[in-house]
Amino acid sequence: MDNGSDFTIKRIGFIGFGLIGGSIAKAIKANHPTVLIYAFDYHSNKPSADLEAAITDGILDQISYDLEADFSECDIIFLCAPVLANISYLSRLKPIVKPSCIITDVGSVKSNIHKAVEELGMQDIFIGGHPMTGSEKTGYGNSYALLLENAYYILTPTENTPKDKLDQLHALVKEMGSLPIILNAKEHDEITAAISHLPHIVAAQLVNLIRESDDMSEKMKQLAAGGFKDITRIASSSPQMWQNICLTNSKIIKDILDQYILSLKNASDALDTMDGDYLYRMFDTAGEYRNSIPNKSTGLFNKVFEIYIDIIDETGSIATIASLLAYNHISIKNIGIIHNREFEEGVLRIEFYNEQAENEAKNLLRGNKYYVYER
Q1: Which residue of 20, 41, 127, 340 has the fewest CB atoms within a 10 Å radius of its CB?
Q2: What's the CA gap between 356 and 306, in Å, rounded?
Q3: What's the CA gap between 349 and 341, in Å, rounded?
Q4: Full strand arrangement of the beta sheet holding 126-131
Q5: Which ranges of 94-176 does DSSP label H, i.e. alpha helix?
Q6: Of 14-28, 158-172, 179-193, 284-298, which range is least confident?
Q7: Are 305 and 355 in contact (CB under 8 A)?
Q8: Highest mean pLDDT among 167-171, 203-207, 319-323, 339-343
């Protein structure tokens, strides 16, 4: 794939245009504003608010209500709907796409859609994809091009994927700022079951446990800030998406979930027998391994760019900091007081949209005599 004026991709279609689809489209438009981007709307009577917003933003060139008419000339089609819906569109696309087209998806499960591709005889036009990034927020309104920056983007070609098509998609992914990695579908699903699908189940059930254990005065809810809210952040993700993921990768998820349940049983037994050695090793090995995980690139969970600072409890202290950052053109995504500081340093938490803003804020605040904590 050539760059600049020789860019050979002229039209790209999207089926599903939420957080991931919108972010991919924004990243592509940033590099190639003349590329035509279409998004299919299954509503036949009224366009969705997200798609209308994308038209207003100049990201979408056309909202399509007719796949056959509008997607037959697409050079690439991104399937960005929930996993099961993506699979259902394959049979509709097969008879209309041109032979040079690349169909790719962004789902967190790959074996299921690869099986459907094989059954439909579409191995020469399909390349599985999974941008390992995201947010607990959903919808086009929360999308942004930098969501893909430094994020691993897994590509799962079929056995019959032409090299030139894989090279083309690989180059496009790199242009988005992502880090492409090529895996087979089975290997992908085993990895994501362990490091993504299981944590979402754990987070959801941990939140549900607290919800069911709380009393009428909701003291647990009131105190569940700081560390607890941080480790369960992903429980706010789309329930439809995660239902689809669990149903399409159920066996592999169950295998790793059973292993996790056994590890919890071991911890429970250690508490029952007062096994201090086991409990120490549990926390020691976990901490050592977690600290060895690289922090430079984005994994399956979107990196949170945040700092914590100490402030004097007086009127206007937060406004002073916010004004200082705004005056220096540093945008804040979120700001708030941390009341439960058992696992946090710094009473004020400030979240930013990207790493550059975080670093600029740290330098600015330290230069103004604020004590900045990092995690």
Answers
A1: 340
A2: 11
A3: 11
A4: 62-64, 36-40, 11-15, 76-79, 102-105, 126-131, 152-157, 179-182
A5: 111-120, 163-175
A6: 284-298
A7: yes
A8: 167-171
When the candidates are 1.10.3300.10, 3.40.50.300, 3.40.50.720, 3.40.50.150, the CATH number that belongs to 7-183 is: 3.40.50.720
- Which range (65-69, 70-74, 101-105, 143-147) has the least confidence? 143-147
| Orientation angle between helical segments 83-93 and 239-248, nearest 10 degrees | 70
Query: What pLDDT was estimated at residue 340?
Result: 40
Instruction: Give the confidence band of 223 by pLDDT, cuts at 50, 70, 90.
Output: confident
Q: What residues contact residue 111 under an 8 Å CB cut-off, 6+ apart?
A: 185, 186, 188, 189, 249
Percentage with pLDDT > 90 across the chain: 52
Unique residue bearing structure tokens 């400030």: 350
CATH number attached to the domain at 189-292 = 1.10.3660.10
User: What token pair was written down for 353?
Assistant: 């949209």
**Integer Cα distance of 369 and 275 in angstroms:** 46
This prediction has a pTM of: 0.71
Domain boundaries in the chain?
7-183, 189-292, 305-373
Residue whose tokens read 């149903």:
247
Residue range 305-373, CATH number: 3.30.70.260
DSSP code at position 243: H
Q: What is the pLDDT of residues 29-60, one digit of tens each?
A: 999 999 999 999 877 667 788 899 999 999 99
Segment (H or E) for 334: strand 332-337
DSSP state of 151: B
d(C-alpha 85, C-alpha 72), whole Å:
19
From 126, 131, 118, 140, select the one nearest 97 (Cα to Cα). 126
Residue 193 DSSP class: I
